[in-house]
């Protein structure tokens, strides 16, 4: 029987899920995998959390180093989140001869290159299934099931909070602030909701996926990120009129050795498979050259889905350790060549607030024409002579740089009020 002695850092949302799963599922896991997982020590500073979970049959300490230095422990699970001191704890655990399991996407995306280099040097393992897509086994799918594929594209909804907010705004016609409050009440949002709302959490996750699928390391700072707080419920309503929904889409594509990486609110045709991912659910749509299109869908957050991913890593590590093995996850840590979004060809949705009088549209059309942006649709629903109305324009495929120049010029027109709302359209050309 392969036995793994486990130490856990952090008894928060995910930590408590891992504790419960290990308690209730140990015999099932033993039966299904031949692996015995034994949680021997938990480090948690916050005594209120300890009182709430009341761990049984396991020692609870307040100092993480007490777990990391324990010679009895084979694997340390890091679930405290954030960059520091999580990074120092992981490095200390590796140097103490332990393998590590983590759900910490921010740390892996921003500092993972150093962590994996150190793990490779020490011939130790860092597993991270829970860092992307909660309970969805996307990392295992890429590393194992899709190994025979060159993956050329990943389109994903990998932030449950923003997907919940956009769904509420769309279905219940709520404004952003109200929908955010609901998401926080449900416990979906990160401690600091800015990470979710401004797209950073999704950027961390797509950066990890891109490093895995494209065989190199993604320089996180090169991910083009735009948050969803700029989306108004009227954008959702106008998009609907044209047959689209708005999603915070995280995309990674590779072409001619260059990688396109972006997280931003995006219009998707309502028939697109990702348009039907609602609420806090996540989905990852990949294109492999052998398998074709593949969709993974499930719960992207929460104690038990994410805990389930952590426990699957433990079983993998128990098997690896039994063979005395180290497995290289990233064979190359060379930085990937990222393409500027200004060179990407896309269709766009523009919402321009203008004074309602003759000749205004022709001024906007003239600028678009000069910047080589071709218009495919225009609507002006309201009529308020002399006052301000929204005009919506959809474009044909155009370069990011052309749309940027055009929007800058439209923003400067005297008849334009406020800034033009610009949203990319994905899923058709
Ligand atoms: N805050 C994340 C989300 C869950 O809303 O999807 C953890 O990754």
Task: Report what the structure shows.
This protein has helices at 13-33, 47-53, 64-68, 86-95, 105-122, 138-145, 160-172, 176-185, 194-197, 200-214, 233-241, 303-322, 360-370, 400-412, and strands at 2-9, 35-43, 59-61, 75-78, 99-102, 126-127, 151-157, 224-225, 244-255, 258-269, 281-288, 292-299, 345-355, 375-379, 388-395, 398-399, 416-425. The chain is of the alpha/beta class. It has three domains: 2-134 and 303-322, NAD(P)-binding Rossmann-like Domain (Rossmann fold), CATH 3.40.50; 143-299, Dihydrodipicolinate Reductase, domain 2 (2-Layer Sandwich); 341-425, Alpha-Beta Plaits (2-Layer Sandwich). Strands 7, 8, 9, 10, 11, 12, 13, 14, 15, 16 and 17 form an eleven-stranded mixed β-sheet that branches. Strands 3-2-1-4-5-6 form a six-stranded parallel β-sheet, with helices on both faces. Helix 5 runs parallel beside helix 10. The protein is elongated. The model has no long low-confidence stretch (mean pLDDT 95). The structure holds L-homoserine (HSE). The site of L-homoserine has 9 residues, from helix 7. L-homoserine (HSE) binds next to helix 7. One of its GO terms (molecular function) is homoserine dehydrogenase activity. This is Homoserine dehydrogenase.
């Amino acid at each position: 029987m392969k036995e793994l002695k486990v130490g856990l850092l952090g008894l928060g949302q995910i930590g408590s899920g891992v504790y419960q799963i290990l308690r209730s599922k140990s015999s099932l896991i033993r039966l299904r995998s031949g692996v015995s997982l034994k949680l021997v020590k938990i480090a948690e500073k916050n005594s209120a959390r300890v009182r709430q979970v009341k761990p049984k049959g396991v020692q609870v300490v307040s100092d993480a180093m007490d777990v990391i230095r324990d010679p009895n422990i084979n694997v340390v699970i890091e679930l405290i989140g954030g960059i520091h001191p999580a990074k120092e704890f992981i490095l200390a655990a590796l140097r103490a001869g332990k393998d590590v399991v983590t759900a910490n996407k921010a740390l892996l995306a921003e500092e993972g290159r150093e962590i994996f280099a150190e793990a490779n040097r020490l011939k130790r393992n860092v597993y991270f299934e829970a860092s992307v897509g909660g309970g969805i086994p996307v990392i295992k799918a890429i590393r194992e099931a899709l190994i025979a594929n060159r993956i050329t594209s990943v389109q994903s909804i990998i932030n449950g909070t923003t997907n919940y907010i956009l769904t509420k705004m769309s279905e219940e016609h709520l404004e952003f602030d109200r929908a955010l409050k609901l998401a926080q009440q449900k416990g979906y949002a990160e401690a600091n909701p800015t990470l979710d709302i401004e797209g950073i959490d999704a950027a961390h996750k797509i950066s990890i996926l891109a490093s895995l699928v494209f065989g190199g390391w993604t320089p996180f700072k090169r991910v083009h990120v735009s948050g969803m707080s700029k989306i108004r419920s009227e954008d959702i309503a106008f998009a609907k009129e044209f047959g689209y929904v708005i999603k915070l889409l995280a995309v990674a594509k590779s072409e001619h050795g260059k990688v396109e990486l972006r997280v931003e609110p995006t219009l998707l045709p309502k028939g697109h498979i990702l348009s039907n991912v609602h609420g806090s659910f996540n989905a990852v749509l990949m294109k492999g050259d052998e398998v074709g299109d593949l969709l993974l869908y499930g719960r992207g957050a929460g104690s038990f889905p994410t805990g389930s991913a952590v426990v699957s890593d433990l079983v993998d590590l128990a098997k690896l350790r039994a063979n005395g093995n180290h497995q290289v996850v990233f064979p190359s840590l060379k930085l990937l060549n990222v393409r500027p979004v200004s060179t990407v060809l896309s269709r766009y949705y523009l919402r321009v607030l203008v004074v309602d009088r003759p000749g205004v549209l022709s001024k906007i059309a003239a600028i678009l024409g000069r910047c080589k942006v071709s218009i495919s649709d225009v609507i002006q629903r309201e009529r308020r002579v002399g006052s301000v109305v929204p005009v919506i324009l959809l474009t044909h495929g155009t370069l990011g740089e052309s749309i940027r120049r055009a929007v800058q010029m439209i923003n400067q027109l005297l008849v334009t009020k406020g800034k033009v709302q610009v949203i990319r359209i994905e899923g058709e050309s």
